[in-house]
From TrEMBL:
Any one of the GO CC terms: plasma membrane
Entry membrane topology: Multi-pass membrane protein
Membrane keyword on record: yes
Localization per Swiss-Prot or TrEMBL: Cell membrane
Protein name: Probable membrane transporter protein
Transmembrane segments: 47-64, 76-95, 101-120, 132-150, 156-175, 187-209, 229-247
Location (main, coarse): membrane
Family affiliation: Belongs to the 4-toluene sulfonate uptake permease (TSUP) (TC 2.A.102) family.
PANTHER family named among the record's database cross-references: MEMBRANE TRANSPORTER PROTEIN YFCA-RELATED, TRANSMEMBRANE PROTEIN YFCA
Amino acid sequence: MELGIDLIALLMLAAFLAGAIDAIAGGGGLITIPALMAAGIPPVQALATNKLQATFGTGGAVLAYARKGHIDFRRFAIPTIAAFLGSALGAYILMRIDPAFLEGLLPLLLIGMAVYFALARKLSDEDRHSKAGPLSLIAVALGIGCYDGFFGPGTGSFLTAALVAMFGFGLLRAVAHTKLLNFASNLAGLMVLMAGGHVIWITGIAMALANIVGGQFGAHGAMKFGAGIARPLLIVVSLALTIKLLADPQNPLTQTVLSWLT
């Protein structure tokens, strides 16, 4: 599927904004996925192209945290493999689902994620005693990885919350290891969707570059001005783009609701 320069430019703007917000509060996929679908890209291709640009962003974050010594690669070797395998399974399931069903399901998932980000509590930066063992960590990585391969937005927040609440990590260490697991799940999902021929390469690479720049902008902005504006901005933009999707009378979910009302 070929897109015009004007649409690619708008998607790059969305990716820049998503990268900035993702660097501060996570959840950038809540902006890029509905933006891709609003541009007329079918659901599976939208998710695949989003995986391409997200993989660049998480890969860069892993390198940054690894250089500072914040990632325990030995402890997280098996959970990382679990996240990779779970995501591959999720992406495989995604490619087997009826596209019309996905067009109706994705707006519901996007709304659900926006509500989650609106209600989620701030996490502590202090390490605590772990409440769960290594097998639980593997299970969590596998399950959330599967979700990431199938859909994606909120994956980083879910992983971070689990590492803090269940495994006693402080916020900084939790985020660092979340990026490792999320990179593995992004990479696996991307590879499966690439094999299925669903990635729009020019658009994805352009968005990846914009996402990287946005991430740097967001990180510096957060350090200088604080991160208070990121979460409400994420929720507003996400819901606005989702409403645009639902405003299309051809959307299966919209058609279903209209049929109930008539």
